[in-house]
Amino acid sequence: KELDTIKNEFITNAAHELKTPLISISGYTDFILMKHNENLNPEMRDDLNIIKRNVYRLEKLMDQLLEVMKIDEHKLDLQKFPTNIKELLEDCIREISYQLKAKEHKIKVNVDKNLILEIDPERLYQVFTNLLSNAIKFTAKQGLIEITSKRLDNNTYQFSISDNGLGLTADELARLFKKFETIKSPIRDKINISGTGLGLYISKGIIKAHGGKIWAHSDGLNKGTTFYFTLPI
Ligand SMILES: Nc1ncnc2c1ncn2[C@@H]1O[C@H](COP(=O)(O)OP(=O)(O)OP(=O)(O)O)[C@@H](O)[C@H]1O
Ligand SMILES: [Mg+2]
């Protein structure tokens, strides 16, 4: 137990230290792209954009590691505010609209526009963005993604995010929420989707910290997947 704490502290410090130069690299890359825009030929611009993309991936990984350390140490400090969920979702969809367009997916949102819950908006934003980006990634082109919400009882709201994509076997469903689990299989290798396998582990930690539950359902390969989570009212 003590060894785990020392290990977590080390990873947390390392992730923080690694973020500082990354912020500088991404800042200077943006600076060159903007300030020297006219002096750049297309090849240079493409190369700089590759640097930008990879720095972004590293920054995301560092942020994910920091979240995992907080979850493992039960130190996820929630900043809860009464939040309009539909508006939060619209922000998420705006952020991933590029991926949605690239894959020509349709998205349907069936959430009460007046629904307000006392939650940590930044954390719930992460949960929605990860579930949505998973649905986009693991669904072939022109898929359908649906988000619904319903009141289960006086104390609970339930959300679902469904896709009509790749689906999951019973064995894969059982492993989904593990740390660093990306679920390797020949079919998935063919689609060649990169990820760190931390999104669902973090999502679970966030929903649990809110007093809710998260789980997934799929009827099998190519039968689509639905993720459910609950939040207390
Ligand atoms: N909607 C889905 N349909 C099919 N498989 C899914 C779906 N969502 C998740 N998975 C599987 O579960 C794995 C774990 O998901 P998770 O979000 O934790 O990681 P990731 O998306 O691979 O990486 P990260 O979110 O850290 O960038 C995925 O790699 C994928 O194989
Ligand atoms: Mg993910």
Q: What is the third-level CATH name, the topology of the largest domain?
A: Heat Shock Protein 90
- Biggest β-sheet, characterized? 5 strands, mixed
Ions, cofactors and other ligands present here are:
adenosine-5'-triphosphate, magnesium ion
Number of H- or I-type helical stretches: 8
Strand and helix order: HHEHHEEHEEHHHEE
What's the gyration radius in Å?
19 Å
CATH architecture of the largest domain: 2-Layer Sandwich
Characteristic terms for this protein:
233 residues, alpha+beta, Heat Shock Protein 90, 2 domains, 5-stranded mixed β-sheet, two-stranded antiparallel sheet, 8 helices, globular, binds adenosine-5'-triphosphate, binds magnesium ion
Description:
- It is a single chain.
- A five-stranded mixed beta sheet has the order 2-4-5-7-6.
- It has helices at 2-35, 42-72, 85-95, 97-102, 121-137, 170-175, 186-191, 199-209; strands at residues 81-84, 106-110, 116-119, 144-153, 156-163, 214-217, 225-232.
- It folds into two domains: 2-72; 81-232, Heat Shock Protein 90 (2-Layer Sandwich), CATH 3.30.565.
- The chain is globular and about 60 Å long.
- It starts with a helix and ends with a strand.
- It is α+β, with helices and mostly antiparallel strands and 233 residues long.
- Bound molecules: adenosine-5'-triphosphate (ATP) and magnesium ion.
- Residues 64, 130, 134-135, 138, 163, 165-166, 168, 176, 181-183, 188, 195-201, 225 line the site of adenosine-5'-triphosphate (ATP).
